[in-house]
Amino acid sequence: MYYDKNTQLFLDGKWLKANEATTDLYAQTLHYGNGVFEGIRAYKTEDGIRIFKAKEHYERLKYSAKMMHINLQYSVEELTALTYELLERNNLENAYIRPLIYLGANMSLQPTDEVHVMLCAWEWGKLLGNKPLNLMTSSYQRPNPKSTHIQAKIVGHYTNSILATTEAKQKGFDEALLLDMNGNIAEGPGANFFYEKDEVLYTCPLGNILSGITRQTVFELAKELGIEVVEKFFTPEDVYKADAAFFTGTAAEVAGIASLDGHEFRLKWEDSLGYDLARAYQYKVTQREYKNFELV
Ligand code: PMP
């Protein structure tokens, strides 16, 4: 699914065949999870292939590296140019791009100077499908921000996401929703969370979540469309009474949610503000004019 015999990836200044690239089994990232990464999308637009918010993603990658004491030498501009080359070399149009910064052999608990930069991408449509999701409140909390840098996209954080998603699927749900250490709703395993009540959108403030670039885009779109968004802490009980809800994330885009812990939301996805934002998001990423965009 991710690569075939022709796929090329970028590794430390070279273009290699994905099926010929190798790595060190003594790498610190593999043993201890000390690495950072991004998830970015490119879209086919009328002006050609465009990486959506490349600058924001690569600034976050640099921030993540800095927080983990990883010396990432590449600039945002260099990484962006390399990513366009990656898309071209692989003839990709609507693609998901995965930059990974990983470390070399080191079994100590200190960072190493051996920093590897890998960029790969593959053609990828919608991640979560079009059917609104049934969520469960996870028994796993998001990592405590006093135990890690929660706003950095660190490889090791995703063991928490994997546990939560696996638990949700084993219990017959589509996805998990995780609480923070205070019992408020934080985010999904790989997406931020919003709910709608009386035509206002609510999402939690920064502090216990990844600062999603799609979350920020939804703030911008909501402003343009005259939709009010309030940042506040809330619990699963608050969400049970919601009219509608959705996830935001680069992979998920704006994905509708049907229920939490079996409590179904009042509105059909197609009648919710999230649905309008999901459509506006598609216009935005493909650079289509949505001035005359009509709310449903
Ligand atoms: N939270 C988590 C834990 C994530 O992994 C992601 C995906 N990067 C998000 C939120 C959404 O972030 P973004 O909109 O920048 O993709």
Structure, described:
The chain is an alpha+beta fold. Helix 2 packs across helix 3 (76-89). It is 26% helix and 29% strand. It starts with 7 loop residues before the first strand and ends in an 11-residue tail after the last helix. Strand 8 (133-141), helix 4 (158-170) and strand 9 form a beta-alpha-beta unit. It has seven helices and 16 strands. The protein folds into two domains: 8-122, Aminotransferase class 4, branched-chain amino acid transferase, N-terminal domain (D-amino Acid Aminotransferase, Chain A, domain 1, 2-Layer Sandwich); 133-285, D-amino Acid Aminotransferase, Chain A, domain 2. The strands form two sheets. Strands 8, 9, 10, 11, 12, 13, 14, 15 and 16 form a nine-stranded mixed β-sheet that branches. Strands 1, 2, 3, 4, 5, 6 and 7 form a seven-stranded antiparallel β-sheet that branches. Bound molecules: 4'-deoxy-4'-aminopyridoxal-5'-phosphate.
